[in-house]
Amino acid sequence: MSEDRTLLTIGEVAARAGMSASRIRYYEARGLLAEPERVAGKRRYRPEVLSQLAIIESSQRVGFALDEIRDLVGSRDQPAHERLRQLAVMKLPELDELIDRAVSLRRLLEICSKCNCESIDVCRMFDERVLPLRDLTGPARRPRLPRGVSRAGA
Known about the structure:
Order of helices and strands: HHHEEHHHH
Radius of gyration: 25 Å
Helix content: 40-55%
Largest sheet: 2 strands, antiparallel
């Protein structure tokens, strides 16, 4: 019976972890948390679940996807610190790309912030010299042409 007192309800876990009970159930469904014990049909968690939730939250903050986190916390093939190191090495190039995109977006916004053009048609933002910067900000969208006009004829 004393063991029941150390077990936490999902509401207690949610309150202590600062998240919703539905989020905890979602993490269970995604395989990030082990299936909890049941007492009278209700979930009961060991206190260690709080540190597991902290690991999940911290991992998300540094950019790991839930699938990556599941591999990190659930891998028994190699020590967790080795798996963490591998994931971090794989994530760094993604972060570098994100930083490059953010710098490019900043340049574009700086151009926009100084715009005093009378018309958007003459705005430097749309100048050919700026196009290489725009290419770094993500997938380009081609402007829609009027009906009956093809790109070959434009």
